[in-house]
TrEMBL record:
Recorded superkingdom: Bacteria
Name of the protein: Uncharacterized protein
InterPro entries listed in its UniProt record: Quinoprotein_ADH-like_sf, WD40/YVTN_repeat-like_dom_sf
Length: 491
């Protein structure tokens, strides 16, 4: 596996109108085609996803190997050459062993260094960043009508003759001389290996949890089939990783977090493993009185558990049962479906605001710490959820539902839920967002192509999803895609 503290980038675009290639020597938000002068934008989100994917791809390359990827945007295609190589100064060719501050430490030549979502960009073309046009001598040509001399300075392709008033189009060869293309140059993405060495290897996430600036995942990573990881979100990289098999905890498939602790468990077992969220160190094992299917840590230090028998219990750190909050029968009262509550179980989670979020069948609800039912609302269309819901600090609730596609009886919903749990039922997914007071239910990210299997929200309000094949997706607080992990077949 390659150490990709540095990823070398060489970028260009191909205009869809004239097919001319233009060098892109910086992560700019737009530029003009050197062939026809067409202006096109490069959205920041495209750079975010392209650079994040470039790092993942580089991690799979041999040292000094190069590959390429193409990304489509409106009016053009962005082509990116990606290499896993050490960075060198473009002026003196000396290696950069560390991130330069403002200048090359060897020759003192100024170097562009700026933070970006995927890492730190180093060595970009400062003139391109400033949207400066290269100073080139004006070109003289003749009016196509009367032959009078015309001066082309490169600001427009259409020139009006002062003598006869006729319009003349600047020929391609003259335009190219006025817009002599920059050569494609190298610039770099720096990951900061001392703190976040990148994802170095394919991560297949079984379940997610999150905190402030960090996402936790349980799953497989590279050659480690059972791992617990903490991922820094800015820039994205591994903070720490625990080989669960090496400590005898390989059966963990589900994860939740509160404060400085992580709770890992496997549905159908009684044991709940507790880890230090700062270091990944195993702290203790809590044994529940009954096998559990869902665990939610409460701010008071206890755990609210859903059991295999369809009930709910509250336990302390030693596994001793405590008075239940919420009270028994709450699920049936919340959703008006006692049999569904008892047999389907639903899922519950504690939001970052400290209040319970519950999904059951086709509904999602919020319960205050006093036990008061704040609200319950149906999901768009007819849906079923078996994914633990989450809530951001401002009270916004996020939940994932699987699309059923028609009216279902309680018996049908129970059968469908059981088939989803067993993996026999494959269906499309929808991410929904509900305002803090239960208002504004919205289907944010429907998908007919993949199933969303896990959900987490950071203290900053970013939403993270895992798909059925373990692929990660990162969304902003409005549910707009910021980044997604490269598909396995592209790695």
């Amino acid at each position: 596996m390659t150490d990709t503290t540095w990823v070398r980038l060489q970028a260009s675009t191909r205009c869809l109108a004239c097919t001319e290639v233009t060098a892109v020597n910086a992560a700019v938000d737009g530029l003009a085609c050197v062939g026809c002068g067409a202006e096109f934008a490069i959205p920041e989100q495209l750079w975010d996803s392209a650079l994040a994917e470039a790092r993942e791809i580089a991690e799979q390359l041999d040292n000094n190997a190069t590959t390429s990827r193409s990304f489509d945007a409106q009016g053009m295609t962005l082509n990116l050459a990606i290499a896993a190589v050490d960075a060198t100064c473009p002026h003196c060719r000396q290696p950069w062993n560390a991130l330069p501050e403002r200048a090359c430490p060897a020759c003192a030549t100024a170097v562009s260094v700026r933070a970006f979502a995927a890492g730190t960009l180093v060595g970009e073309d400062v003139h391109m960043l400033a949207r400066e046009r290269r100073e080139l001598a004006p070109q003289t040509l003749s009016c196509s009508g009367c032959g009078a001399p015309l001066t082309a300075e490169g600001d427009t392709r259409k020139l009006e003759c002062g003598a006869c008033g006729r319009e003349t189009v600047v020929p391609d060869e003259v335009w190219r001389r006025l817009h002599a293309p920059r050569a494609v140059a190298s610039w770099y993405l720096y990951g900061g290996a001392s703190r976040a060495p990148g994802l170095r290897g394919r991560l297949h996430a079984f379940d997610l949890a999150a905190g402030a600036g960090v996402v936790y995942a349980v799953g497989s990573h590279g050659d480690t089939p059972f791992a617990l990881l903490a991922l820094d979100t800015d820039p994205l990289g591994i903070r720490w990783m625990v080989d669960l098999e090496s400590i005898g905890k390989a059966r963990l498939m589900s994860l939740c977090a509160w404060a400085d602790e992580l709770f890992g468990y496997c549905e159908g077992l009684r044991t709940i493993e507790v880890f230090d969220a700062q270091t990944g160190a195993h702290l203790r094992t809590t044994t529940a009185p009954q096998p559990v299917i869902n665990v939610a840590p409460d701010p008071d230090g206890t755990l609210v558990c859903q059991t295999m028998s369809g009930g709910r219990i509250r336990i302390d750190a030693e596994g001793r049962e405590q008075p239940l909050w919420p009270k028994r029968g709450l699920f049936a009262g919340l959703f008006g479906a006692r049999r569904l509550a008892e047999e389907a179980g639903g899922r519950l989670g504690v939001g970052l605001d400290g209040e319970l979020r519950i999904v059951l069948g086709d509904k999602v609800g919020r319960v205050a710490r006093s036990g008061e039912i704040r609200w319950s609302v149906p999901a768009p269309s007819v849906n079923v959820s078996i994914v633990t819901p989450v809530a951001s600090p401002d009270g916004t609730t996020w939940a994932v539902f699987r699309t059923v596609g028609g009216t279902m009886s309680v018996e049908q919903m129970l059968a469908f839920t059981e088939a989803m749990v067993s993996g026999e039922e494959q269906s499309s997914s929808v991410l929904v967002r509900v305002g803090g007071d239960g208002e504004g239910m919205a289907a944010v990210r429907p998908s007919d192509q993949e199933e969303y299997t896990s959900l987490a929200v950071t203290a900053e309000g970013e939403v993270w999803l895992a798909t059925g094949d373990g692929q990660l997706m990162r969304l902003d607080r409005d549910g707009q895609l910021l980044w997604r992990q490269a598909p396995l077949e592209d790695m």
